[in-house]
Amino acid sequence: MPIETESQANHPLVPRLEIPATVSSPKGPRIPALDFTKGVLVLIMVLYHWVNCFIGNQWAYYRYLRFLTPSFIFITGFMISNVYLSKYAAADARLSKRLFTRGLKLMTIFLVLNLSRTFVIPLLSTGVLAGNPLDLGNIFAVFVSGNLPVAGGKLVSFSILVPISYLLMFSGALMLPYRLYRYTFHLVCVLLLLSILILGVTGARSYNLEFITIGMLGVVTGSMPIEAINDFVRHPYALVFAYICYAIAITIWDVPFLLLTVGVFLSLAVIYLVGASASESGTTRSEVILLGKYSLFGYISQVAILQILGAGFRHANLGVAGLGMSFFAAFALTILSVEVVDRARARMASVDRLYKVAFA
């Protein structure tokens, strides 16, 4: 934790950031502000998925939530350098193996969930598939370009898992040259940015490439001293002003890659600031931190919950009142699902082992 003078520590406009400077061992302390940030993203993602399920693609304010998916990927990259590289030396073969294995797990989860989805959607009558998932064009869209259709039904669900999986496996492979050249991730980040620029000049765009690049920016950011990050978020008025400028910009120009990247940095900085300066004993903060610890499970469970809610409320045809109830139920059930899993893990070793196999 950065050293503060007495006047700085007591100044009402300078939030205290209760963040350890490093994570020094494989069982080192978690960073509460980071878990809080992930937890808030999970809650905002509930809103995003609820809109998808109950309102549809015609919602006029999607652009203001576009930072969500790349923010999760950015945090994944941040953890690779800030957490994993604090637990293992770059030369430790276990690091590359762990990153690559975790990436493969996420890809397996993605495939299993979408295979299940092809059977569940017709049963629940909650939507239509956008096309044949085995079509070569659709396979290219899912696993290469990431340019998925936004109308006529969803081709796949849980698509965020694909670029996160790529980022983890790619980072695992990059640990080999990183042992010899400490700026390997910086160099790769520059090359990825150049690739996006070249695609832009030709009029093309790859969302998977953009997301992986933002994840690599997260790796580079996570390699910075934690004091520098703390100093950056200690200016709430500047952050709010910058965010207002960003909101105005995307209102005018939509969300090109440059503004998307800016939005990720600013959104995460604001949420991180709130989490770092909030009271440690607050019940709400503790609940959000718990969601952050189970961010992947919370993301998956909310999609399943909303599919079920969508089927139930459509059949009930409750109108505006039904929308309000479904919105509240989606938040409450997502939080409840995480609470249930957390307590089950603490009480039953078999549940804990199963969770670790799937998500750890």
- Major beta-sheet overview: none
User: Helical segment tally?
Assistant: 15
Oligomer: single chain
Number of domains: 2
From N to C, what is the helix and strand string?
HHHHHHHHHHHHHHH
Termini separation (Å)? 27 Å
Average pLDDT for all residues = 84
Protein architecture, described:
With 360 residues, the chain is an all-alpha fold. It folds into 2 domains: 25-60 and 278-360, no CATH class; 62-224, no CATH class. 72% of the residues lie in helices and 0% in strands. The chain contains 15 helices and no strands. It has helices at residues 6-10, 32-54, 68-87, 93-124, 136-145, 161-178, 184-201, 207-222, 226-232, 236-253, 257-277, 283-293, 295-316, 319-347, 349-359. The radius of gyration is 21 Å and the shape is globular. Mean pLDDT is 84; it is low at 1-28.
Q: How would you concisely characterize the structure shown here?
A:
By secondary structure, the protein is an all-alpha fold. It has helices at 6-10, 32-54, 68-87, 93-124, 136-145, 161-178, 184-201, 207-222, 226-232, 236-253, 257-277, 283-293, 295-316, 319-347, 349-359.
Keyword list:
single chain, 360 residues, mainly alpha, 2 domains, 15 helices, 72% helix, globular
Task: Furnish the topology, listing elements before pairings.
Elements: H1 6-10, H2 32-54, H3 68-87, H4 93-124, H5 136-145, H6 161-178, H7 184-201, H8 207-222, H9 226-232, H10 236-253, H11 257-277, H12 283-293, H13 295-316, H14 319-347, H15 349-359
Helix pairs in contact: 2-3, 2-11, 2-12, 2-13, 2-14, 3-6, 3-8, 3-11, 4-6, 6-8, 7-8, 10-11, 13-14, 14-15
